[in-house]
Task: structure prediction
Amino acid sequence: METVQQVGGGGEQVQGWQVRNGIDGSATVHGSAFQAGEMTVHQYAAPTAPVVWPVVIGRIPPKATAFQPREELRREIDAARGQYGTVVLSQVLAGGGGVGKSQLAAHYAREAIETGTDLVLWADAAEPSAVTDLYARAAVELRVPGANGEAEQDAERFLAWLAATERGWLIVLDNTTEHTPEQLWPVTSRGGRGRVIATTRHRGAASTGGDRTLIDVSTYSPAESAAYLGERLERAKCTRFLDAHAEELAEELGHLPLALAHAAAYMVNTRRSCGRYLELFRDRSRNLDAVLPARTGADGYRGPVTAALLLALDAATLEQPIGLAGPVLHLTALLDPAGHPEQLWNTEAVLHHLSAIHGRPVTANDALDALAVLHNYSLVTLTDTPNREVTLHALTARAALDTGPDAAQAGLALADALVELWPSEDYGLQGLAATLRANTDVLAGHQTINLIQRPQGIHMLLFRCGTSLVNAGLYATSMEYWGNLSAAGERFLGINHRDTLSARGNLAQSCWEAGRTDEAMSLQEQVLTDLQRHYDSHHPAVVLARNNLAATYSGAGRIEDAISLQEQVLTDLLFVLGTDHPYTLMAINNLAASYLDTGHIDNAVRLQEQVLADRQRVLGTGHPHTLMTSNNLGIVYWRAGRLDQATTMLRQAVEGLDRILGPDHPDTMLARKNMLLVAQHPQPEAAHDSSTRSPSSEAEPGSAV
Result:
């Protein structure tokens, strides 16, 4: 059924309504409601070619310039492996930022590829949902039995395949945290041919549980520091800068690989020797220890590294465009260190913020030039990785935030920018969506940035992020997300605030998608009751809440209750919005699907024909919603015994959707499935009991975060 989400933070204005036009040929109504974005389950296209071994999945970081093999540390890692039969002993490389954990893991990944390991998978584990998505992708690429495009289920199937296969494999979980779910760690391997290497900043119980061996990754030895500086400067043809002060400089930098890298880059870019660089380093007028005091233990290096970073930033700020590198770095530091899209720097919100700070207009080219300067000074890294073209080390981010200006306004500007960047329909852009979700999590996690406040309410970014989780098929995760956001809304805005109610409505829709229909129904009924206390019966928020509840009633088999609500919704929409409004057409479509379920086929045919004619007139014949109406009408014709007309409608839908949305889009695949079903079962009764779902109408996403 089509359902509509109320967009939070907009008072009586409704934004982001998307229509899902999907009739399932097995004659079931599929409905879901989510605000601010179309709710479609992402499905990876099943490859048709056979698996060609070995397989590499994920992006292994490139080998660092002047990479040091660190033989002694590698002997310790290798000694920790194995001897546990079918148990996977995970080597957890633990240490602070900048010690080279990921480079060591990447070395093992490249070594595994070179020695013919059947599967090497590299996952950025900072966001558990990203690991789930990658495991699901692996399940499809490796033809794991039962893989069907449902992210969480396919991830479980992949882990089961790892336990059962006799092939050799290496899973690298880069940047795990204490919150990395236990179920994401492979635990068994048939024949003991599987291996897990993880990197983490966390040294506590989460990194030593199960069958994990913690390996402390510390700084370079003096010999390794000397070798690094020698090789790095030689590659840059700057060996003349490697003077008698090199050993002293390495000691001053604490032998930290990241600090040495920044120092070497600074020396190359500014044409300074080790002695001259050391003199500048020691003459720093700013008391960095007061800003970021040195601590004993694993974080003892942070003081000197921050000093090196800020010294490089001073030089970068003097490059063209003068004075812009600092503000750009401070914005970047608020986002996910694993990367954000380069397009962010072309958004109106970011450019307006930079212009206000800079005192003159800043263009997208200015921002990109500043990023290039920061890249040259090794303060950020520009990559070719889609959707994560701009990265920086987490230590660099923390140093910039600790010493930079107040982040509140910058954070709100970035939140607005991420909303600008977020596509209204992200189901076909799962890589971008996962990156945006990760950046939202990091941004919202900064304590100085308040995305829930009076009188503005809940920032639209949070609504977009929650809807995206549903679009990705991460229903359990989305339930937790909406539950937390609802609780936060109640705490900061009040239980009856419009955005709190919107978040609760979205929680209900996540419950519905997860198959927890009773919970969804109870929540939606309560939300409707609460809305009716504040608004009259014709208010859009009330009408949409009834629409969503009707979809749940239909999915629960309460067709008569659904029809009663749908007829009421349609009457209100005709009165408030008129006959041609997309929501009115959506309501007619839903009612037609319910009529079909109750055997009122003539009424279903009449209404679906009306929807198709109106959408062709209002939206055009090539609009995806129009094409999915052709799909819907095709199923209705099929149920009415009008086979030729059904075939024509379905063929038009498949051809148009394939052209506009692509062959792998869920709507295209649904229409193609329907066309095949009709071809195989000219009489609908032959396939009537093949599915527990009901034929379907459109499903409009519900509320918005």
About this structure: DSSP finds 28 helices and twelve strands in the chain. The CA atoms of residues 313 and 326 lie 7 Å apart. The first strand starts at residue 23 and ends at 24.
